[in-house]
């Protein structure tokens, strides 16, 4: 008598439709596998993290010190350096994530992406795995910004719920902007075009946000753009959680909802676009 062959849950006498537990476990396994591969690349080249840390250091040590001294930006009860530190953390997350899409183009050129796309792993798992690995890179940036802020005597909040909140928003922001980057890479398909698109996107996203000046001080048309910019909501949450005396404009719950919905939309769009990068 031949040995019984394992069957998929829907063929083994179970109710019609997918066994959600079985499907989800496979989905998370595939997601974590992609994430592990991406983090292995980072462990082999940690110098990238140190070079990325130079940019927030320059912003805080030069720009923040100068503008804090001349008091050119009205920041309410926070001094300018304290006001600016969460914005620079969000900027670091943005800059390290927005160029993440170039990895897809490299993988296509090396033939790796073609192998991933013919695997049974869902496209959304491939994208989510990369997005979560971008979150790990964002946490490394957060460590550097916290360390520098501590040295500069910026009044940081170390309440456990605030630190955990910062970690969550850093991961969420990294995932959001990395999926946005991956979608752009799937559309432009070449490294040269992608680098140009990345440069064009980062500056408007950063300057049309509340990272280095409050929305209340912006012209009306810029403030409208800032309120539709997901980076503004990440900065708002980080400013509330990261520094002592930081107040939320929108509410941390609204910040989280906007970022989660935007991330979900970009995740679905990128998963749909992912196979097109090899065509």
Q: What would your notes on this structure say?
A:
- The protein is built from twelve helices and no strands.
- The chain has helices at residues 20-44, 47-52, 54-70, 80-98, 102-110, 112-117, 123-151, 160-188, 191-207, 220-228, 230-242, 252-273.
- With 279 residues, it is an all-alpha fold.
- Helix 7 packs across helix 8 (160-188).
- The radius of gyration is 21 Å and the shape is globular.
- 38% of the residues are buried.
- It is 72% helix and 0% strand.
Largest sheet: none
In whole angstroms, how far apart are the ends?
47 Å
Derived from helix and strand composition plus strand pairing, the structural class reads mainly alpha
Helical segment tally?
12
- Oligomeric state of the chains in view: single chain
Please write out the topology.
Blueprint: H1 20-44, H2 47-52, H3 54-70, H4 80-98, H5 102-110, H6 112-117, H7 123-151, H8 160-188, H9 191-207, H10 220-228, H11 230-242, H12 252-273
Helix pairs in contact: 1-7, 3-4, 4-7, 4-8, 4-9, 4-11, 5-8, 7-8, 7-12, 8-9, 8-11, 8-12, 11-12
């Amino acid at each position: 008598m031949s040995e019984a062959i394992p069957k998929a849950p829907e063929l083994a006498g179970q109710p019609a439709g997918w066994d959600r537990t079985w499907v989800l476990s496979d989905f998370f396994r595939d997601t974590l596998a992609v994430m592990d591969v991406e983090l292995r690349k980072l462990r082999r080249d940690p110098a990238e993290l140190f070079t990325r840390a130079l940019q927030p250091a320059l912003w805080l040590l030069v720009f923040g010190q100068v503008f804090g001294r001349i008091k050119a930006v009205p920041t309410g009860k926070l001094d300018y350096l304290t006001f600016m530190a969460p914005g620079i953390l969000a900027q670091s997350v943005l800059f390290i994530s927005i160029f993440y899409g170039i990895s897809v183009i490299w993988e296509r050129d090396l033939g790796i992406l073609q192998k991933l796309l013919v695997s049974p792993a869902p496209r959304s798992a491939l994208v989510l795995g990369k997005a979560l690995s971008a979150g790990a890179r964002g946490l490394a940036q957060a460590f550097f910004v916290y360390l520098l802020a501590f040295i500069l005597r910026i009044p940081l909040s170390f309440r456990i719920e605030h630190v955990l909140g910062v970690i969550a928003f850093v991961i969420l922001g990294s995932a959001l902007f990395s999926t946005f980057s991956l979608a752009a890479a799937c559309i432009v398909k070449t490294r040269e075009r992608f680098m140009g698109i990345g440069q064009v996107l980062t500056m408007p996203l950063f300057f049309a946000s509340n990272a280095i000046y409050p929305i209340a001080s912006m012209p009306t048309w810029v403030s409208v753009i800032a309120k539709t910019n997901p980076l503004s909501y990440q900065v708002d949450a980080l400013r509330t959680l990261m520094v002592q005396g930081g107040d939320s404009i929108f509410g941390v719950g609204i910040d989280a909802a906007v970022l989660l919905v935007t991330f979900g939309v970009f995740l679905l769009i990128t998963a749909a676009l992912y196979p097109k990068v090899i065509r």
